[in-house]
Prior knowledge:
Blueprint: H1 2-76, E1 78-79, E2 85-92, E3 100-107, E4 113-116, E5 120-123, E6 143-146, E7 151-159, E8 166-168, E9 170-176, E10 182-191, E11 197-199, E12 201-204
Amino acid sequence: MRTSxxxxxxxxxxxxxxxxxxxxxxxxxxxxxAAGGDNAATAQSRxxxxxxxxxxxxxTTASGGTEAGSKGTTAGAQQCRGDEMLLTAVHRFAGQQGDxxxxxxxxxxxxxxxxxxxxxxxxxxxxxxxxxxxxDKTGTGKRITLQPGGTAYSAVxxxxxxxxxxxxxxxxLALRGAEGQDGPSxxxxxxxGKQQFSWNEADVLNWSTTKxxxx
Length: 215
């Protein structure tokens, strides 16, 4: 009887020890899985952060694409041609300080076009192209895109010292290309009552969307 009780007690103790061992192992596995779950969440969070960064990059690219598209619209415009432009000039402040020829170029074509730099101007029968004004503060390489009906302005500054000057009633104008080369020349007659002008020296302003000397 004693032997049987001892064996029974021993078996019960072994069974209890085994159960505790299994429980401990199961608990370790659960802790390990929980730790693994936290690591996975951290990795996913990093991936989402990385994903957000990528979204930021896409947003910048999209913004740049829109900007490039806007530039593309301007870049898609062709250079203005003289035969599609209405070129006119008016003599302003004749014989006074600020004496100049106001040059107006209007796009009469059906598509946008651009002008750049300053027009190549030859006064009267002179064979030399007038220089760019040293006092001009506008950008020389800037392109101005003219929509159909759009207008750009330039001016020919006239300096008359009262003697040994030249006189004329018209001048030749050529539009410059992107590399500064001159295009075909077109004769421009003056409008208004003071069509004759005189000069000893003269220079030219860049194209602008606003009238120079508008005072």
